[in-house]
């Protein structure tokens, strides 16, 4: 079932930008936003770990003004979407995005993802290519880019690994750790690490990250997510996905990204030599929010070269 966007300001309003609605998928609630004319070419923004659709607060407006219909959704487990105790990994999130494109957007779209959202965008581009025009990774986060992709293990080793990972995650006191981080300066330190210039930091960003972490199901959802991501099959890792992606690909990376060092970008080029890569000097892990004007300009310049539906000439 698809709900119509609720009455809300259509002009950007910080993290509460655009029109908001709830879409029901597989018995789960998915929060999503839209800004722009629905007849314009579609652009779907996918947030990173710990964030939500509101994290694109400085991008939706300029992108819509340039002639794109901008959508963003909260991945299951994040933001205002359901936080179920399911196997949450990029396979499930890619299916979520593909269904969103089919049932809500109703047309192929360009996918723009930050960090974990980039892995989801890449996965959706490979597994649902008919719905994806192009993919933008800003940047791409996946540990398999800097470590050997695991070979197929014999059944007994897979069972042992599953047991070890599951129990290690169950022993972590996430019910205590998550509220502690969300309510103390520990969260401010983590955000400062992602925003080395300090631009974009503030109460709104803190609320955007802390509020979902304080929901009752946040800890079980994070535990399920940690287990699922650690036990992904080889076919769901970034190196193999990059080898299979056929659509145009842009990578945007901050030169001061300490969470995923920009040197990792060279691993992407090994698997996809023809990708377009832009390094934004001085930016960190969230260039779209830390340096939105330069990010938006870089993105729009690249989007203008894509084949497919033309933008409105009066945009």
Description:
The structure is a single chain. This protein is α/β, with parallel strands linked by helices and 315 residues long. It has one domain (19-303): 3-Layer(aba) Sandwich (Rossmann fold), CATH 3.40.50.1820. Helix content is 40%, strand content 17%. It is built from twelve helices and eight strands. It has helices at 60-65, 90-105, 116-127, 155-171, 174-183, 185-194, 203-213, 218-230, 238-244, 265-271, 287-290, 292-303; strands at 19-25, 28-35, 42-46, 69-73, 109-115, 132-140, 249-254, 276-280. An eight-stranded mixed β-sheet has the order 1-2-4-3-5-6-7-8, sandwiched between helices. Strand 7, helix 10 and strand 8 form a beta-alpha-beta unit. Helix 2 crosses helix 3 (116-127), helix 3 crosses helix 9 and helix 5 runs antiparallel to helix 7. It is globular. The two termini are 32 Å apart.
Rounded to the nearest angstrom, the distance between the terminal CA atoms is 32 Å
Looking across the biggest beta sheet, what order are the strands in?
1-2-4-3-5-6-7-8
Structural category: alpha/beta
Instruction: Give the C-alpha Rg.
Output: 19 Å
Report the major sheet. 8 strands, mixed
CATH topology label: Rossmann fold
Number of helical regions: 12
């Amino acid at each position: 079932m698809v709900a119509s966007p609720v009455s809300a300001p259509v002009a950007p309003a910080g993290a509460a930008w655009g029109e908001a609605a709830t879409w029901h998928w597989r018995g789960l609630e998915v929060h999503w936003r839209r800004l722009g004319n629905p007849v314009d070419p579609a652009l779907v923004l996918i947030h990173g770990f710990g964030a939500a659709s509101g994290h694109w607060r400085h991008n939706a407006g300029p992108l819509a003004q340039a002639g794109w219909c901008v959508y963003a959704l909260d991945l299951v487990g994040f933001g205002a979407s359901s936080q179920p105790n399911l196997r949450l990994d990029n396979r499930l999130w890619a299916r979520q995005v593909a269904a969103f494109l089919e049932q809500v957007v109703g047309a192929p779209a360009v996918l723009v993802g930050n960090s974990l959202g980039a892995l989801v965008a890449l996965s959706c581009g490979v597994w649902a290519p008919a719905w994806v025009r192009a993919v933008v990774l800003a940047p791409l986060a996946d540990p398999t880019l800097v470590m050997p992709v695991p070979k197929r293990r014999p059944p007994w080793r897979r069972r042992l690994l599953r047991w070890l990972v599951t129990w290690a995650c169950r022993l972590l006191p996430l019910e205590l750790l998550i509220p502690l981080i969300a309510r103390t300066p520990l969260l401010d330190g983590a955000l400062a690490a992602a925003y080395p210039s300090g631009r974009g930091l503030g109460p709104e960003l803190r609320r955007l990250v802390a509020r979902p972490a304080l929901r009752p199901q946040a800890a079980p959802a994070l535990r399920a997510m940690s287990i699922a991501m650690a036990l992904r099959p080889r076919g769901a890792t970034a190196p193999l996905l990059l080898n299979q992606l056929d659509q145009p690909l842009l990578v945007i990376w901050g030169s001061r990204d300490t969470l995923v060092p920009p040197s990792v970008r060279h691993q992407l080029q090994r698997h996809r030599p023809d990708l377009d890569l832009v390094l934004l000097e001085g930016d960190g892990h969230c260039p779209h929010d830390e340096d939105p004007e330069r990010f938006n300009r870089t993105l729009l310049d690249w989007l203008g070269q894509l084949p497919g539906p033309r933008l409105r000439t009066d945009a």
